[in-house]
Amino acid sequence: MTSQKTIQCAVFGASGYSGVELSWLLHHHPQFTLSYGFTSGAREAEPVAALYPQLNDRCDLMLQPWQLDLLPQLAEQVQVAFLALPHEASAELAPKLIDAGIVVFDLSGAFRLSDPAQHEQAYGFVQPQFAHAIPYGLAEYTQLQGNEPLIAVPGCYPTAAGLALRPIADFLANGSTPIINAVSGVSGAGRKAQLHTGVCEVSLQAYGVASHRHQPEIAQSVGREVIFVPHLGNFKRGILATIYAELAAGVDAAAVQQALHAAYAEQPLVRVVAQPPKLQQVVGTPYCDIYAKVHGNHVIFSVAIDNLLKGAASQAVQLANQYFGLATTTGLLNRGAVL
Ligand SMILES: NC(=O)C1=CN([C@@H]2O[C@H](COP(=O)(O)OP(=O)(O)OC[C@H]3O[C@@H](n4cnc5c(N)ncnc54)[C@H](OP(=O)(O)O)[C@@H]3O)[C@@H](O)[C@H]2O)C=CC1
Ligand SMILES: CC(=O)N[C@@H](CCC(=O)OP(=O)(O)O)C(=O)O
User: Fold this and answer.
1) Which domains are delineated in the chain?
2) Residue 335: its pLDDT value, please?
3) With a 6 A CB cut-off, is 226 part of the ligand 1 pocket?
């Protein structure tokens, strides 16, 4: 185990929603020191509290615009970079950081899909060639050794779907297609101004119907085709996913419950709950809450996470904890969130 606060790290995209949550978690982390918080080159240097006044007198991080000529200095100082960047920016920057000897935890979708053709179709750009070898970091199902150069942090919706469906993957009817309906708060779309996420525009609505880039990611994660329909809701943060899956003959409610409890008995950040979860019980926390009910030959899940934490920043820290041999919850409990 590494001694106190010795692991220096940088957050790229620290002015964004998932980046600021990461920065706040790392600011308090007992083992990591947040040495740099970078923004795009389009900004001036400024304190993080200038963008997020709730951090006044609580976090003295200075945001700096990223320029490539900072790389040698960065490589001397930090061991770890967390990328909370647009997908293409991550794809471009990650190889440079790796070449400089920095381990990268990437929150974008740039390295999640192992099939390059599927990636190009979903993201519209060509994936770096080494992407197929990058571990997909659904934290409860990943065993990092501490020598991986890059870890792909799962997407927010795929985190919720993967944590529910993986424990019962062997119980599903042959050839059946789970259906995932999920509602996300507006922070899922990031901080940048966009008409469709404006306060007068958002009203519960489906989008990306059976065409969202997370559909192939969920399919890859659970090992079968799925139907995925995301929805945008008029609330700030959180994802509530309702998942329907057909069970193989003979699988009953007890078997499903036993599989879920067995999968997460030793996993402190996934809670198998007895009532359908409310968003408010996970918002601002690193937990995923999973409820399951068997109805006839189907299992119905209701799953709740905070998209910016378990769906992004806290899962990245969970993976970094694992990478450095720390307990999975280190620095994650009793923290509160920024937004
Ligand atoms: N929001 C969410 O719920 C989740 C997001 N993610 C992923 O995390 C990543 C960040 O998302 P989110 O926090 O929502 O995004 P935001 O739009 O809130 O933030 C984006 C950040 O990236 C910076 N940035 C933009 N372009 C560049 C560039 N070319 N070079 C360097 N920095 C750049 C921005 O800086 P500036 O302020 O200067 O523009 C900002 O700090 C995305 O890949 C997203 O898909 C993953 C899971 C959940
Ligand atoms: C509400 C909303 O817009 N959500 C985003 C997903 C969140 C996100 O940033 O996607 P990744 O997990 O792939 O990084 C979207 O649908 O594009």
Assistant:
1) 7-153+312-323 (3.40.50.720), 157-305 (3.30.360.10)
2) 80
3) no
